[in-house]
Structure formats: structure tokens, C-alpha cells
Recover the amino acids of this structure.
């Protein structure tokens, strides 16, 4: 919706999750989320004005 890549993001293959191979990646990702900033601050969003409102 914002045209930006979600951040943070983690892409995993289903077979890696099912087999358990992705466990290290998942744990590292969870740790990064827990230790990251609690409040990322204001987010700039695109503004759209309808031609009927102008």
C-alpha cells in the first residue's frame, strides 16, 4: 500500500520451516525484533487528494 518493502522482513521456504532448517534464521529474526527500537517514530505516508476536493 505504501510502495515500500516492509521492514523488517524475513522470507523463508516452507520446506525449510517444516524441516526445522529455518530455526536459526527465525530465532535471529525474533531477537532482532525484540532488541530493535520499540517506537520506530513517525512514518511518512503518501498523500492523495481527490480531484473533486481541489
Amino acid at each position: 500500500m505504501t510502495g515500500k518493502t516492509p521492514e523488517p522482513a524475513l522470507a523463508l521456504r516452507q520446506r525449510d520451516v517444516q524441516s526445522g532448517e529455518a530455526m536459526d534464521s527465525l530465532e535471529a529474526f525474533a531477537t532482532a525484533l525484540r532488541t530493535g527500537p520499540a517506537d520506530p517514530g513517525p512514518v511518512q505516508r503518501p498523500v492523495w487528494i481527490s480531484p473533486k476536493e481541489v
